[in-house]
Design a protein that fits this description.
The complex is a heterodimer.
Chain A lengths: L2 H13 L2 H37 L3 E5 L3 H10 L8 E2 H9 L3 E12 L2 E6 L2 H5 L4 E4 L7 E4 L1 H7 L6 E3 L15 E8 L9 E5 H8 L2 E3 L12 E5 L2 E4 L17 E3 L7 E2 L1 E6 L2 H10 L7 E4 L1 H44 L1 H9 L4 H41 L2
Parallel strand pairs in A: 4-9, 6-8
Antiparallel strand pairs in A: 1-15, 1-16, 2-14, 3-4, 3-15, 5-8, 6-9, 7-8, 10-13, 11-12
Helix pairs in contact in A: 1-11, 2-9, 2-11, 3-9
Chain B lengths: L8 E9 L6 E9 L4 E5 L6 H8 L7 E6 L2 E2 L5 H11 E4 L11 H12 L4 H13 L15 H14 L4 E5 L7 H18 L3 E4 L3 H4 L4 E4 L6
Parallel strand pairs in B: 3-8, 3-9, 6-7, 7-8
Antiparallel strand pairs in B: 1-2, 1-4, 4-5
Helix pairs in contact in B: 3-4, 3-5, 4-5, 5-6
The chains are: A alpha+beta, B alpha/beta.
Chain lengths: ~400, ~220
């Protein structure tokens, strides 16, 4: 008997019942792939999250949810955390034990987070400016690689901040920001961020503004009343929604900038001793601030995730077993329904071994197709899954 | 068609019963000479198809003997019997027994391919039979797309393609119109005569019976 002929016959059956064969292969492949894909996916996400957490020694923020603070500081996710003041972060810097990088994460430019920070942030994260230069003036921004690609932006273009609410008509105007630089792709949440100086973030927040100079004698149409040392403008005063070289001098802050809010601050201790001293200072339960180690917080999160992941994998494993059992039943029923076909082959003299080979080849072909499907699913999950998860953390 | 040497079919003292069933058949004696075309007739359900299956070695009798070409069919080993059927016996089944997901050509060549003895000559012969039976234009079509009559002709072509030394056919013209019936009947009989092959054919078709060398009433076989 010819095994090649048996394989050809099996191939004919599979290809001439293409829809059923594909459906069975897809079901089998998906069931096989899911446990593997979940495992690989979880491992990849964990690795990427750990890398960023490990690169961030300490995060200072208001006492409250450490997880929310970490998500805000590392992934620029707008979390409901109490702000800290610039003064409080300055106090940590003034100890001389660490460098402090402010972070202001409240506003967005469409779907991208606007991160108010200092120039030190770029060096700290080892971010390279691929085009243009870093921000140099109020109202400038440096955009991540994905922002540039998604919006087709380059240095010299402009990007508007988004209002916090659609009906916030009394709120601040969207700020037209000048793009001064585009970062090289870093494969991190920095790719999806719009970086501005923290003062620009405060400007978007409405703590600073720019308008026509009412002190000029010519500005009579915009002046409601002039008193000694004070000029009150009327509704005709033009508010600037863009910082230019011509009007930058007209922008001013109200109040003490030391009291202005930040979402968090990245704290980079000079050495282990400094880290221990700083950590000790924020151990007090009555302290209004907290200093967290992102790596520790991530461990807490991941231990929960992995407990869930374990249960999910067991569930998916059972699902795969069920799919295999169903496939077995499908094949058994199929062979039973084709009993006349096999008895014909036996009648014309085909050996039981050849008949078994025909059946085995059919199963093998479907299983092979299922494995290919499983491979593709795993590959797609590994390729795109972590990026989707990390993007969803924005 | 190439000449094939063959001796006839000899049946003696044959008894067969399906296990657990009261139905049985008995054939005291039947001889089909080489090149002889014998039609077996009888009422429906009398056991003609069962007799054909016993003769072809598909069923084992309780008693008696079937000799084909001098060899006792039911005393062969299972493997030898399979090989004998695959290479030496041509069978036309009542329900055609075609593989519906194969084309006409693939169905006709199937026994040779699975047996590992398909070659250029068998391909040529298969093509010739398909042509003779008037189904050449359907050669690449799946048999499930054909009419009953066309499928029956495919079954006949499959039975003849490997040049069997013994030929058995169960109602091979039941689904055919008069013209096709004549073609198929003539083809089987001509093959048997030209190749000195004994042919046993079960039929109800009176017109077809006239073409045979001998018509045997099943009822008389056990008399």
């Amino acid at each position: 008997m010819s095994p090649i002929a048996a394989l050809q016959l099996a191939l004919r059956y599979v290809t001439r019942h293409l829809a059923q064969s594909l459906l069975l292969s897809l079901a089998l492949g998906a069931a096989l792939a899911l446990p593997v894909a979940v495992r690989v996916f979880a491992k990849t996400v964990e690795r990427e999250m750990r890398q960023r957490a490990a690169a961030t020694p300490l995060v200072l923020g208001a006492r409250g949810s450490a997880l929310d603070l970490m998500l805000g500081a590392l992934y620029f996710r707008r979390q409901p955390v109490e702000p800290v003041s610039m003064r409080q972060t300055d106090e940590v810097r003034d100890t001389g034990l660490a460098e402090v990088i402010p972070l202001h994460v409240r506003f967005r430019a469409q779907e991208f987070s606007i991160v108010g920070t200092a120039l030190e942030y770029f060096d700290f994260r080892k971010l390279r400016v691929a085009q243009g230069h870093k921000f140099t003036r109020l109202g400038d921004c440096v955009i991540g690689a994905h922002v540039a690609a998604a919006r087709g932006l380059k240095p010299g273009d402009f990007l508007f901040s988004s209002p916090e609410q659609v009906f916030d008509i009394a709120g601040t105007y969207p700020l037209k920001m000048r793009v001064t630089g585009v970062l090289a792709e870093a494969f991190s949440p920095d790719d999806d961020a719009v970086f501005v100086d923290v003062k620009t973030a405060w400007l978007i927040e409405g703590r600073a503004h720019g308008h026509d100079d009412l002190a000029l004698p010519a500005a009579t149409a915009e002046v409601l009343k002039r008193e000694e040392g004070n000029v009150v403008g009327n509704a005709a005063v033009r508010m600037f929604n863009e910082v230019t070289d011509a009007n930058v001098a007209g922008f001013h802050f109200h109040g003490d900038t030391a009291d202005y809010p930040l979402t968090a601050a990245i704290v980079i201790p000079h050495d282990a001793k400094s880290e221990a001293i700083l950590s000790g200072r924020f151990q007090d339960a009555k302290a209004v601030l907290q200093l967290i180690r992102p790596g520790d917080e991530l461990n807490v999160v991941l231990s929960t995730v992995f407990r869930i992941e374990g249960a999910v994998i067991v569930g998916l494993g059972l699902l795969a077993c069920a799919a295999a059992a169903i496939s077995f039943i499908v094949f058994t029923l199929s062979f039973k329904m084709r009993a006349r076909e096999f008895s014909t082959l036996a009648d014309i003299g085909v050996s039981p071994r050849t008949l078994a080979a025909i059946k085995a080849f059919e199963i093998a072909l479907i299983a092979l197709a299922g494995i290919v499907v499983a491979g593709i699913v795993v590959m797609l999950v590994v390729q795109f899954g972590p990026a989707l998860v990390l993007r969803s953390l924005k | 068609m190439s000449a094939t040497t063959s001796t006839g079919i000899e049946v003696s003292g044959l008894k067969f019963a399906y296990p657990g069933e009261s139905f049985s058949i008995r054939v005291d004696s039947l001889v089909v000479a080489p090149g002889e075309a014998v039609a077996v007739v009888g009422p429906s359900g009398c056991g003609k198809s069962t007799l054909l299956r016993v003769l072809a070695g598909l069923l084992s009798p309780e008693a008696g003997e079937v000799r084909m070409g001098g060899a006792s069919v039911h005393h062969m080993s299972a493997r030898a019997l399979r090989e004998f059927r695959l290479r030496s016996v041509g069978l036309v089944f009542q329900d055609f027994a075609l593989l519906e997901y194969l084309t006409v050509e693939e169905n006709v060549l199937l026994p040779m391919r699975l047996g590992g003895f398909a070659d250029d000559a068998t391909h040529a012969r298969a093509g010739q039979l398909i042509e003779q039976l008037g189904i050449a234009r359907h050669a690449r079509r799946l048999t499930r797309e054909l009419s009953q009559g066309e499928r029956q002709r495919v079954a006949v072509a499959r039975a003849l393609a490997h040049e069997p030394r013994f030929l058995f056919a169960d109602e091979p013209t039941a689904s055919l119109d008069a013209a096709r019936r004549d073609t198929v009947g003539a083809l089987l009989i001509e093959y048997a005569r030209a190749n000195n092959v004994p042919l046993v054919l079960v039929t109800h078709d009176h017109a077809l019976q006239d073409r045979f060398d001998r018509v045997v009433d099943f009822e008389t076989l056990s008399a």
